[in-house]
Design brief:
Blueprint: E1 10-13, H1 16-26, E2 30-34, E3 38-43, E4 49-55, E5 73-77, H2 81-90, E6 95-101, E7 106-112, E8 118-124, H3 131-137
Parallel strand pairs: 1-4, 5-8
Antiparallel strand pairs: 2-3, 3-4, 6-7, 7-8
Length: 138
């Protein structure tokens, strides 16, 4: 069985440069490849956190898969979702779900990456009191 050298999501976005600037402005991510049609971001190298962005409609994507991803969330766990929410609001980011505490034990805010997927910023605040109720609320 082959080993995995790296595993990361590739999101189709309207403007890879705008999505790159948003994500690198928000998190400590290194740009490891940057072209008008494709951007690869990393924190910690191939074994760390990686995400790639490709221009929607690019012909390297299979037909039928060239549109922006729908119903896809990129979840990032942080230490302080409240502080990041304040920063996102101050910067005028498109908040798609306001900061809230869920029965799942998470505090999170959801924001749209410009021209791309929804970024779900999560902070663990507690273990769910009732895992079955938490499951039903998601």
């Amino acid at each position: 069985m082959p080993s995995i050298n790296s595993l990361y999501p590739l999101f189709s976005v309207a403007d890879p440069a705008a999505a790159r600037d948003f994500l690198t402005g928000l998190f400590d991510l290194e740009v490891v490849f940057d072209a008008p049609w494709y951007v690869h971001l990393s924190q910690g190298g191939p074994a760390g956190f990686n995400v790639a962005l490709i221009a929607e409609g690019h012909d390297s994507m299979p037909p039928g898969e060239r549109d922006r991803g729908r119903s896809v969330l990129l979840t990032v766990e942080v230490d302080d979702a409240t502080a990041l929410d304040s920063r996102l609001r101050a910067e005028g980011a498109e908040i798609v779900q306001p900061l809230r505490d869920d029965p799942t034990g998470q505090r999170h805010v959801m924001v749209r990456v410009p021209g791309g997927p929804v970024l779900d910023v999560v902070e663990w605040i507690a273990a769910p009191a009732d895992p079955e109720a938490a499951q039903a609320s998601t």
